Amino acid sequence: xxxxxxxxxxxxxxxxxxxxxxxxxxxxxxxxxxxxxxxxxxxxxxxxxxxxxxxxxxxxxxxxxxxxxxxxxxxxxxxxxxxxxxxxxxxxxxxxxxxxxxxxxxxxxxxxxxxxxxxxxxxxxxxxxxxxxxxxxxxxxxxxxxxxxxxxxxxxxxxxxxxxxxxxxxxxxxxxxxxxxxxxxxxxxxxxxxxxxxxxxxxxxxxxxxxxxxxxxxxxxxxxxxxxxxxxxxxxxxxxxxxxxxxxxxxxxxxxxxxxxxxxxxxxxxxxxxxxxxxxxxxxxxxxxxxxxxxxxxxxxxxxxxxxxxxxxxxxxxxxxxxxxxxxxxxxxxxxxxxxxxxxxxxxxxxxxxxxxxxxxxxxx
Length: 365
What we know:
Layout: E1 13-18, E2 25-31, E3 34-36, E4 44-47, E5 51-54, E6 56-61, H1 73-85, E7 88-93, E8 110-113, E9 117-120, E10 129-132, H2 138-148, E11 152-156, E12 158-161, E13 166-169, H3 173-185, E14 189-194, H4 200-206, E15 210-213, H5 219-227, E16 231-233, H6 236-239, H7 242-247, H8 253-276, H9 295-314, H10 318-324, E17 337-340, E18 356-359, E19 362-363
Parallel strand pairs: 1-4, 6-7, 7-8, 9-10, 9-11, 11-14, 14-15, 15-16
Antiparallel strand pairs: 1-2, 2-3, 5-17, 12-13, 17-18, 18-19
Helix pairs in contact: 2-3, 3-4, 5-8, 8-9
């Protein structure tokens, strides 16, 4: 039995099923927006069988970005709802020109934010973030964005340098050392957008906490990620757009060829990172090129590079939730979970047709 979307969240509800990640029997009681593992007298059993998983995590998402920019908070709310109905109930928003904090406390996903992108002047997409004329101001800007976010800061590590005609790093090693130290002193973690290879050595050596995209990773850099416990969010469905990006870069043939080469090598690059033991998490890069609500597409792509169904599912559920310090269906956690009819270990497509998506105790599907 499945409760309808209008389920009264004031009534205690019971969900019984099995966890495909552990094969354990799961019994959850939902009271308001929270989970208890203790039986609640008078609770209504709304699910008596099924597969229960924590709400999916989109570890690279931008509800405050859309083509043309100028996103309003109401539009961002609609994008977040699209993600939630696709099962993404925790969103790591890695850069937004719009302050999306007004979405907190509403019936929607939990957000963990990094403030605005930090780039150099004319070295990133116009209007997306903060552009620094003086790169030595990077630590001060990191401090500002750490205060504006929810424990993360986002740097643009490389982008096309039009004078060079190809991807190139934005920052020196000394600037990165100072930026990382500033973020960590503020209690924040720091991540970096990187497509190519040249920026990676300094970013890794400086001690960033995560790499976004990472298509240019070489074997020694992959080993360094493992050694330094640096995570990777590969955004595979965004990398699928690299040929289109290259097609629009006729003025910069070296850059266009580079993007095509990165795209062709990406499955092997990410497969090697997985094999080496890099901590990898599912993220769509929704906003801009990628439509919202595509987290299952990303999970399926990760399954294809060697994770398999159960490993790919973990990259979007338990693993990123532990990484981000979020709930994993334990006592007192926010009631964010999916109920599936079929075992996702044998059929990931069941994620596309959940029996229920429970967000803060409310059925949104």
